[in-house]
UniProtKB/TrEMBL annotation:
<dbReference type="InterPro" id="IPR001286">
    <property type="entry name" value="Glyco_hydro_59"/>
</dbReference>
<dbReference type="InterPro" id="IPR049162">
    <property type="entry name" value="GH59_C"/>
</dbReference>
<dbReference type="Pfam" id="PF02057">
    <property type="entry name" value="Glyco_hydro_59"/>
</dbReference>
<keyword id="KW-0732">Signal</keyword>
<keyword id="KW-0442">Lipid degradation</keyword>
<feature type="domain" description="Glycosyl hydrolase family 59 C-terminal lectin">
    <location>
        <begin position="491"/>
        <end position="646"/>
    </location>
</feature>
<dbReference type="Pfam" id="PF21708">
    <property type="entry name" value="Glyco_hydro_59_C"/>
</dbReference>
<dbReference type="GO" id="GO:0006683">
    <property type="term" value="P:galactosylceramide catabolic process"/>
</dbReference>
<dbReference type="GO" id="GO:0004336">
    <property type="term" value="F:galactosylceramidase activity"/>
</dbReference>
<dbReference type="InterPro" id="IPR049161">
    <property type="entry name" value="GH59_cat"/>
</dbReference>
<dbReference type="InterPro" id="IPR013785">
    <property type="entry name" value="Aldolase_TIM"/>
</dbReference>
<feature type="domain" description="Glycosyl hydrolase family 59 catalytic">
    <location>
        <begin position="38"/>
        <end position="334"/>
    </location>
</feature>
<protein>
    <recommendedName>
        <fullName>galactosylceramidase</fullName>
        <ecNumber>3.2.1.46</ecNumber>
    </recommendedName>
</protein>
<keyword id="KW-0746">Sphingolipid metabolism</keyword>
<feature type="signal peptide">
    <location>
        <begin position="1"/>
        <end position="19"/>
    </location>
</feature>
<dbReference type="GO" id="GO:0016020">
    <property type="term" value="C:membrane"/>
</dbReference>
<comment type="similarity">
    <text>Belongs to the glycosyl hydrolase 59 family.</text>
</comment>
């Protein structure tokens, strides 16, 4: 058994003579204890297009994934959801569409974040919604401006038009803060009738904004929640052991959040996440947590392809994986709710030593829950719990997860209930576990499973006529810029709509691009019809493999053709470096005229064709397989149609 109700006598009788007795930690769960208000545990969709392929999943698998993320008593049971306010620019592993591509444009149905928030609310009407920008369209000029305030207000207007109430708004992700902007935005929120709380500063440099708030009361009045990123460490299974504390932040009397944490694998990240949710409060009195990202619904050649709570990268197969992170989060979310109160006197480190593990206790009315973790312990730990009057004295539910086990049968397992005797009970905790003990009910473990994975079958083709106007084409994932379906003659096509360099989050100037397909595709011909609307170049990509920090750092072959007819067959790598393998000139493509591009791969042979005529062929063994992609030169509008990939 992974826990045991014991008495002191039983412990002495059952432990071998040469084995040390478990360290005993006394915990008194007292409703009179002081403590801050718990705001919830959530996750972030955005900051990288990481939910992109989820939208394209078929039912019932799509609904199952959403249940694991949001449905109470089923999986992660997330209590908050933060989404990206799309900015038509790369924000890690992709770009998300803006609701305003230009100053005169407004579309409240772009992208998939509106849909995702609606799905989350449908499963849990009490979930809190938050939003934050990573980048923004270039027509705004600079981010810290009154134009951006108005832009955010229009985004909130879109949310309201869809029946969504946004509870929290942020500034500019990890780009510092402008005190005057926060003051202006806070005033604008209230003057437009929005009660969303303003989070500042969503930075990764510690509690700097809190220091400024102490010195500037008007800035403090404009920020409702103080949120910082990775306060308990960044990446690695050893993170979360200690969290950054700030006397200035505590003194403000405002909610303190880890407004982004995570960046961890869907399975091994459970160690750091479990520590952080407990120790963030013990060390720094943080009461809200957002894991980045929500899900890894991106192709496996992208950098963060296993990072999130779940993985869902094959919508054509209906395949998905539930990560151990789901159950690590469930140990908090399925036993609490926003508004519960922490009990400071029943929160701390086992035996007073953080190496043994940690525990936090919370209550609501007469219900209470305690979450305990022994991730780094090397021996069993004993806890002796006393329940004070005012709290339920009856049976306590116990759930346990062996975080060191990769067997799903060891995750979020209900144990026999414990019944206190005269308000007291004891537990022995095994090393490497997380436990939840609670008088509250409603917990559960979802049973749905995804289908087996398989490659996207060839031949593959799409003329985009079945895709909704204003949306992204099925399986097409924007890396930079904004590619959306538009009316095109008698049918539809995909258009790159961004016509001005964006306000970037990921520094650098990059060409708009989008990827589609399977990383296992090896020998094939990819064809697409293209139309340039202005002078510049258009590009067809093949055997697209690993991508680095940005879309221009990618292993791939490119066929690039200018409006004047100059063409080049290029090899790209992650350094980034472009190598010209062949080049030449054909008749001018001009503008507003359709042309056909093709790339053929057979073993180490790479051939390029324009309007049905082979213009170049080379032998290069650098890349053996990969996706296909489309691209244009920066700020150029172009159209793409009749995409096909065949052996």
């Amino acid at each position: 058994m992974i826990w045991a109700l014991i008495s002191s006598l039983a412990l002495v009788m059952t432990v071998p003579a040469l084995q040390p007795m478990p360290l005993d930690t006394a915990i008194t769960v007292d409703p009179a204890s002081g403590g801050r208000t718990f705001d919830g545990v959530g996750a972030i969709s955005g900051g990288g297009g990481n939910s992109r392929l989820l939208y394209d999943y078929p039912e019932p698998q799509r609904g199952q994934i959403l249940d694991y993320l949001f449905k109470p008593g089923y999986g992660a049971a997330l209590q908050m959801l933060k989404v990206e306010i799309g900015g038509d620019t790369n924000s890690t592993d992709g770009a998300e569409h803006s609701h305003m591509h230009t100053a005169t444009d407004l579309n409240c149905d772009r992208g998939y974040e509106w849909w995702l928030m609606e799905q989350a609310k449908a499963r849990n009407p009490r979930i809190k919604l938050a939003a934050l920008a990573w980048g923004a369209p270039g027509w705004l000029g600079t981010f810290w401006s009154s134009k951006t305030v108005d832009y955010h207000i229009k985004w909130l207007d879109c949310a309201r038009s869809r029946g969504l109430t946004i509870d929290y708004m942020g500034g500019w992700n990890e780009k510092g803060y402008d005190k005057a902007w926060y003051k202006t935005f806070h005033a604008a929120l209230r003057s437009h009738g929005y009660q969303a709380l303003l989070v500042g500063d969503d930075g990764n440099k510690g509690w700097l904004a809190a220091d400024d708030m102490v010195a500037d009361p008007s800035f403090a009045a404009a920020v409702d929640v103080v949120g910082i990123h990775y306060s308990c460490g960044y990446q690695g299974t050893d993170k979360g052991k200690s969290c950054l504390n700030s006397a200035n932040a505590r003194s403000l009397g405002k909610p303190l959040w880890a407004s982004e944490t995570g960046s961890q694998d869907l399975n091994t990240g459970a160690f750091a996440s479990t520590r952080s949710f407990n120790r963030g409060y013990i060390d720094a009195r943080m009461t809200g947590y957002f894991n980045w990202p929500l899900i890894a619904a991106i192709s496996p050649n992208l950098r963060w392809n296993t990072t999130g709570l779940m993985r869902a990268h094959q919508p054509w197969a209906g395949s998905y994986q539930v990560g151990k992170q789901v159950w690590a989060i469930a140990h908090t979310t399925q036993f609490t709710a926003p508004g519960w109160k922490y009990l400071d006197s029943a929160s701390g480190y086992l035996g007073g030593n953080r190496d043994n593990g940690s525990y936090v206790s919370l209550r609501s009315g007469s219900d209470y829950s305690t979450v305990l973790e022994t991730i780094d312990a090397v021996a069993d730990q004993k806890v002796s719990v006393s329940v004070a009057s005012g709290l339920k004295q009856g049976a306590v539910r116990v759930y346990a997860t062996n975080l060191r086990s990769d067997n799903p049968a060891d995750h979020f397992v209900r144990q026999p209930d414990v019944t206190p005797v005269a308000g007291k009970y004891s537990l022995v905790l095994r090393p490497g576990y997380v436990y939840s003990i609670s008088t509250a009910g409603g917990q559960g473990h979802g049973t749905a499973a995804g289908k087996p994975g398989k490659p996207l079958a060839l031949p593959y083709q799409d003329n985009f006529d079945a895709s909704p106007v204003g949306k992204q084409a099925r399986y097409l994932a924007d890396m930079d810029g904004a590619f959306e379906v538009v009316p095109c003659g008698a049918g539809r096509c995909v258009r790159q709509v961004m016509s001005q360099a964006p306000i970037v989050w990921r520094n650098g100037k990059r060409n708009p691009s989008a990827l589609i397909g399977d990383v296992s595709w090896a020998d094939y011909t990819v064809r697409v019809d293209v139309l340039l609307e202005q002078k510049g170049f258009v590009e067809l990509q093949g055997r697209v493999g690993s991508q680095g920090l940005a879309p221009d750092r990618v292993n791939a072959y490119f066929l690039r053709v200018t409006d004047g007819g100059a063409w080049s067959l290029l090899k790209s790598d992650t350094s980034p470096k472009l190598t010209t393998l062949a080049s030449g000139t054909v008749g001018a493509l001009g503008v507003n005229k359709w042309h056909k591009l093709a790339l053929t791969f057979a073993g180490t042979s790479v051939a390029a064709s324009i309007d049905g005529v082979k213009v170049g062929a080379v032998v290069d063994a650098s890349y053996a397989a990969g996706q296909v992609g489309i691209a244009v030169s920066q700020t150029i509008n172009a159209r793409f149609d009749n995409l096909s990939v065949a052996r």
